[in-house]
Amino acid sequence: MTMKVIPLQPKGAAAAGAARAPAPRFAGGPLADTRGRSLRDLRVSVTDRCNFRCTYCMPREVFDAGYRFLPHGAILSFEEIARLARVFVGLGVEKIRLTGGEPLVRRDVHRLIELLSPLGAELTLTTNGSLLGKNAFLLKKAGLNRVTVSLDSLDDATFRAMNDADFPVAKVLEGIEAAEAAGLAPIKINMVVKRGVNDDGILAMAERWRGSGHIVRFIEFMDVGSTNAWRMDDVVPSASVIKRISSVWPVEPVGANYAGEVAERWRYVDGAGEIGVISSVTQAFCSNCNRLRLSTEGSLYTCLFAQSGHDLKSLLRGGASDEEIRNEIAALWQARSDRYSEIRTAETAKARKIEMSYIGG
Ligand code: SAM
Questions:
Q1: Which of 231, 269, 344, 348 is the most buried (most CB within 10 A)?
Q2: Distance of alpha carbon 138 from its chain centroid, rounded?
Q3: 130 lines ligand 1 (CB under 6 A)
Q4: Distant-in-sequence, close-in-space partners of 11: CB < 8 Å, separation ≥ 6
């Protein structure tokens, strides 16, 4: 008999936010955490639901018919997200990524983009691509700048098994084409590499997107959440991915576009474009992590591997002013000391962490 893992779900937001002392006034100027890292990126999970059941993210045996997703009243409205986003931009956020769960399963997500667009931050969205075909133009029109599409294999049987929703590769490719036609390029294509599952498809993935102008990023399988049965043995180090690709199409490193960029960039020596690797497990990049995550129900997380968050929803719904919210976020960032990937061990990997579908990938 297999034991069912119950994912860690935060306690009610109101309880967390009750009767706390207001944060000290933030005087402005550059915002830095305890390790001197600045705040640049905000990831917003717009839903904890997804129409896929990727085995490494939302395994079906946990996220089944009995799983309690957040009720509608618990999740932030678009107006609430936009209000917080304005405060974040005022604190230095330059890029906002909508994610989830699957952001495109939330109805009318383009309306949120319309609200965020005037803030002036770069707006991106990470999606499994399943609903991109019919949404790409609407998203672009609403003000989305770019899109990242997850696609773990070009082999249909492997992909269907990994998404565990029997979803075909061809439909995701249609979504990518629609995004390109809508002007959301260059598109980033994320492939989570799991040893013995899809690593035999690394070269096919590289070949498919070479010369396309789009950028494939090979992601190390991470110990996010506590339901995906993560084991170090299943991780294919990025160095090995680069070696495999370079043995066929030589690549050379390229400098980061900006400090704190998640993916390490490589370009084909023959000029066929670039690829990226995201090596959270084998080459921790905590030292310049500049990201905050806002969960679907309005809690703020200072690390992808966090065990708890900081409730903002009860401030929002309790009548706090923008300045009070700004002070709260600034104080939280200033106290931040996370560096999980630098201290990961087999033991920490077993800790009960918040699920990625809730916190936002
Ligand atoms: N549903 C959207 C999607 O599929 O892109 C957005 C949310 S998903 C959680 C965001 C990204 O996280 C995807 O590229 C997914 O493959 C990646 N991801 C999820 N679980 C992961 C894990 N355990 N290790 C590495 N990447 C993971």
A1: 344
A2: 22
A3: no
A4: none
From the CA of 223, give the closest atom in ligand 1: 23
The answer to whether the CB of 150 is under 6 A from ligand 1 is: yes
Which has the closest alpha carbon to 166: 201, 127, 130, 220?
130
Please give the helix or strand (H or E) that residue 276 lies within, else none. Answer: strand 274-278
The pLDDT tens digits for 341-356 are 888 877 787 888 888 8
Per-residue pLDDT averaged across 68-90, rounded? 97
Tell whether ligand 1 has an atom less than 6 A from the beta carbon of residue 198: no
Q: Is pLDDT at 127 greater than 90 in this prediction?
A: yes
End-to-end CA, the chain = 31
Q: How far is CA 342 from CA 12, 105, 312, 337, in A?
A: 30, 34, 28, 12
Pocket flag, ligand 1, residue 127 (CB < 6 Å)? yes
3-state helix, strand, coil in the chain (%, to 5): 35, 15, 50
Ligand 1 atom at shortest distance from the alpha carbon of 225: 23
Q: Which two tokens stand for residue 73?
A: 């009243």
pLDDT at 17 over 60: no
**Distance from Cα 57 to the centre of ligand 1, integer Å:** 7
Pocket test for ligand 1, best of 45, 106, 126, 197 (most atoms within 8 A of CB): 126
The Cα–Cα gap between 78 and 87 comes to 14
Q: How far is the C-alpha of 128 from the C-alpha of 156, rounded, in Å?
A: 15
* Mutation test residue for ligand 1: of 57, 69, 104, the one with most atoms within 8 Å of CB: 57
What span, in angstroms and rounded, lies between the C-alpha atoms of 262 and 273? Answer: 18
What ligand 1 atom has the least distance to the C-alpha of 222? 24
- Residue of the nearest CA to atom 23 in ligand 1? 222
For the cut 60, the answer to whether the pLDDT of residue 18 exceeds it is no
pLDDT at 285: 81
Q: How confident is the model at residue 19 (pLDDT cuts 50, 70, 90)?
A: low
